[in-house]
């Protein structure tokens, strides 16, 4: 199917609730994504903070293949072995006494808001130290890169976030141009997100290589330079 559909098909057949990028991704590995023409992008969006291990991680791919050959969706009127094993692993490995699996973002947000005030400190106390160190190192590198770009172009009024969910608020004449900037970034080979018209958002995989972060912001620098000419 690759190449048989175009970005214009979105405008022809889909309700325009969103404004997707002009390119169509067709495959990915780790933190790299390729479009229909074979152009490579560094993914700093992470599927909107979903692909915590990057794309096509071998262990996850194998687990999906194994399950596809066994049992598909059966609804929440039943339980199943994988969900029981995952719940047991989470309880035994974290602060939690019970697990609540959601099937929508609305349910997840509601549960998170109700639980956040009472469990936040417990979560931090039980997270794996090497993972936290790796995320902290990557967070610092991303913030430093954004601040460096801002210093060169007066691009951002604020850079903020926790972990690898980081936002950069556009400043001055760049305000309102977040979508334009992400489109320019895509032309340079970088996938980023927006959070409204004034904020760039980044949510890369937790294990994104440091070299990919460095290259991502070389590409973002070129995009910002083009927008500020």
Describe it.
GO terms for molecular function: identical protein binding; pyridoxal phosphate binding; succinylornithine transaminase activity. Its cofactor is pyridoxal 5'-phosphate. The chain folds into three domains: 7-58, Alpha-Beta Complex (Aspartate Aminotransferase, domain 1), CATH 3.90.1150; 71-126, no CATH class; 135-226, Aspartate Aminotransferase, domain 1 (Alpha-Beta Complex). 48% of the residues lie in helices and 15% in strands. It is built from eight helices and eight strands, in the order H-E-E-E-H-H-H-H-H-E-E-H-E-E-E-H. It has helices at residues 7-13, 46-49, 58-68, 81-93, 105-126, 129-153, 178-187, 210-227, and strands spanning 25-29, 32-35, 40-43, 156-162, 165-170, 190-191, 193-194, 199-202. The strands form two sheets. Strands 1-2-3-6 form a four-stranded mixed sheet. A hairpin with a 2-residue loop joins strand 1 (25-29) and strand 2 (32-35). The mean pLDDT is 89.
